[in-house]
Structure formats: C-alpha cells, structure tokens
Amino acid sequence: MLTHQENMFMAQVGPGTPMGELLRRFWHPVLLSEELPEPDCPPKRTKILGEELIAFRDTNGDVGLVDNYCPHRRASLFFGRNEESGLRCVYHGWKFDINGDCVDMPSEPAESNFKDKVKINAYPTREGAGMVWAYMGPKELQPEMPQLEYLDVPEDQFVSTKVMYESNFVQVIEGEIDTVHASLLHSNLDSLAKSESATTVGGRYSYKDRPPRFFVEDTDSGILIGARREAEEDSYYWRISRWLFPYITMIPREPQGSARSGLIVPIDDENCWFFWVRWNPFRALSDDEIQTYKLMQASLAPVTYLGQANKRNDYMIDREMQRTVNYTGIPQNNARAQDAAMTDSMGAISDRDNEHLGTTDMAIIRMRRRLIQAAQALQEGTEPYAASHPEVYKVRSGGAVLPRDVYFTDDASVQEDIFVK
Ligand code: FES
Ligand SMILES: [Fe+2]
C-alpha cells in the first residue's frame, strides 16, 4: 500500500510535478506513424503528459509536434493548413515549421520583424517501430533514443499499434508486470485440462501451479522479474519479464520465442496510451503472430483507438460466456479488454491506501519504489541513469525450464536470451 500522498506523487505527470519531470527526461511514443500517413496530410491532435499537442507531417516527411494553441490569440492549430513545410493557423495565417519557428505572418506589415520574435513550443521527434517519438524535456539534456531491439529489426519482424486505457499509467504498468494474472484473468475454463496436451511451455506449466514464487532483481534499466513454477520433478518453469524506466514492459516469452512490449505513456493523470509492439528478434513474424495483431487492430475504434469493448459497455461482458467458456466472460482479443476492464475499473487513479498486497505483488512493490525514488532523486538533482544510457535498453524478456538448483539469472542460455548482442 501507499499513502495518499505517495500515490499522488507517483500518479501526477503534468509539467512541474516530480513524476512529470522524471518522465520528461525520456523519449516517448506519442502517436503511430500511420496516423500521419503522408507529407502534408491532415494534422492530428494528441495529448501526452497532460500537454495538448498537434502533430503534423511536413512537406519533407518530417514530423512536427507543437503546442495545440497558436501563440497569437490561442486558436487551435488542429484546424491549421499543413502546407509547404509548415502548419498555418487559419485564423490570421501565422505559419510555423517543425522547429516551432514562425516562418510567415501575413497579418502584420511586411516591414515588421515581429515574426522573428515569436515561436511556438515544439518538441523534437523521431520515428521508429511504427511510432512517432518525442522528447519533451530540457534541450540541453536531450538523450539518444533508447536502444530497444524492436527499433532496429527489419519491417517484417515487428508490428505495432496502440490502445487507449481510461486510467492512470501506473496501474496499467502494474497489470503488465503482475504476470500471475495471466493464468487466471486470461484463462479459459478448460485451460487446466488442456495443459497436458499444450504445445507451448507456458501452456503446459502455467495452470498446474498457479501461484508462482516471484524473484526480483534491480537492473540499470529497471527490474528483471523471475516467476518460478513447478515443472517436472527435477525442474522449474521460469517466466521472465521486465520493467524498464519509466514505463516500458516486456512480458514473458516462450523460450527463444517472439516477444511483446508495452509502452504505457500517460495522456494525462487519468488516461494513458498502451503502445504495443510484437517482434521477433530472429525471423519474420508468422501468420499466426500477425493474426493476433490484426484482431486487436480490428477491435479498435478509428481515430480514438479506444477498444470497442470499453467501460461504457462493461467491456462487452457476457455472463453466459463467463459461466461456460472463460474466466471473465470478456472476449480475449478485443483490444486487451480483459486487462482494461481490471485496470480501468480501479478508478482513474487507484486508491492504493486501501489495497492489500500479497506475495505475488513483489514486482509491483519494487517498480513503484524505483519510480518514486528516481523522481525524488531528480528533485535533489540526480538525473535518471537509464535516460542517458540508451544501451541499457538492449534487453528482452524470456522463459526457460531449468534444473531446480539453477537460479534463473545464473543460466548461460537465459543470459544469452535476455540480452541483445
Ligand atoms: S490565432 Fe493563430 S494566427 Fe491568430
Ligand atoms: Fe493481462
């Protein structure tokens, strides 16, 4: 549990808040590249870390991310004309380039140099893994992009999309690293019976021994989590996941299998984006892997990227399905609806002074502590290590069946699998 004060310290992300300042030391995915499909296409509204912003792709194909409000008299640049390397406010025609410089001011006399004095707030952007990324922190501290493996694999080895969640970002991170829920929330009523014939290692062992024993290690990038279950008489099954500063998760994978990552970016204190990447480090994604992604995409409302199953329709819960088919009665592939139903239903900011954490919540406790400590350290002048060391992101999650006397990080094949060379 956290006190109300600690809870709000962790949850608030706006400019000037301690957590907001910590987050602003890192690069953030702000929208999908597909939302700005071509040069000079319509601009898009977005909101990140409580800031209302407009994204546009200019004539050269570069992405600008500027304040929503025109610095003249504050009309929204959403209505702007995206033309000849700049976004023009349609109220009085002031035009801004991707650097935020005012490049034309037709409402002022030609001899005026007022335009050289006016700028709009603009953030630097990059593109990678199908996402537009932005850096919103102090200019002099702008780091390199994190060296995540999925930013560096060929196009046929990854897919990415995003889903809107209607809750604070931290409880969504908690859902991602709380891997014990997979064998409950996401299970079907016959999962245990089917585990004997399961073709995956996870399917074989996750249901027989539901509560795993958690082991958590601090790393430079965040935390490494080993969830240990009984496998055969002489072995354990380890599900290995990660949380990376400040909100990147990597859920367990099949031994040597393809991988998934969540990037849980605050929209504001009460909503967040779940950017979702599936990638394979070694080969093109299979049809099956792409199919899961397509199902997820098909269940999203256009423009908002909110799941069709959402809190307004109780995530399409079907009580008959809950009685006879699966644990929740909520469809599995509907834009992560099972997860969203749980984390959204806690309330926009979960009331953590009324929770009761058990032994399987160990990773959650550690993640919160690391996040809070990093924000406190920054208040005292210590910059977060991971932000300026992009190489610490060269990691993966994992999964392995190991002899009972081997700790998961001591095994050579696990070491090989959870670091990117
Ligand atoms: S309000 Fe934008 S140009 Fe006047
Ligand atoms: Fe889940």
Description of the structure:
By secondary structure, the protein is of the alpha+beta class. The chain has 2 domains: 27-141, Rieske Iron-sulfur Protein (3-layer Sandwich), CATH 2.102.10; 149-418, Naphthalene 1,2-dioxygenase Alpha Subunit, Chain A, domain 1, CATH 3.90.380. It is 20% helix and 25% strand. The chain is built from 10 helices and 19 strands. Strands 12, 13, 14, 15, 16, 17, 18 and 19 form an 8-stranded antiparallel sheet that branches. Strands 2-3-4-9 form a 4-stranded antiparallel sheet, with no helix packed on it. Strands 5-6-7-8 form a 4-stranded antiparallel sheet, with no helix packed on it. The protein is globular and about 85 Å long. The protein starts with a helix and ends with a helix. The model has no long low-confidence stretch (mean pLDDT 95). The structure holds FE2/S2 (inorganic) cluster (FES) and fe (ii) ion (FE2).
What's the CATH architecture of the largest domain?
Alpha-Beta Complex
Strand coverage percent: 15-25%
Shape: globular
Ends distance: 38 Å
Helix content: 10-25%
The total strand number stands at 19
N to C succession of SSEs: HHEEEEEEEEEEEEHHHEEEEEEHHHHEH
| Count of helical stretches | 10
Low-confidence stretches: none
What structural class do the secondary elements suggest? alpha+beta
**Main sheet: strands, sense, barrel:** 8 strands, antiparallel
CATH superfamily of the largest domain: Naphthalene 1,2-dioxygenase Alpha Subunit, Chain A, domain 1
CATH class of the largest domain: Alpha Beta
The pLDDT mean sits at 95
Rg estimate, integer Å: 23 Å
The unique ligands bound to this protein are: FE2/S2 (inorganic) cluster, fe (ii) ion
CATH domain fold name of the largest domain: Naphthalene 1,2-dioxygenase Alpha Subunit, Chain A, domain 1
> What's the number of domains?
2
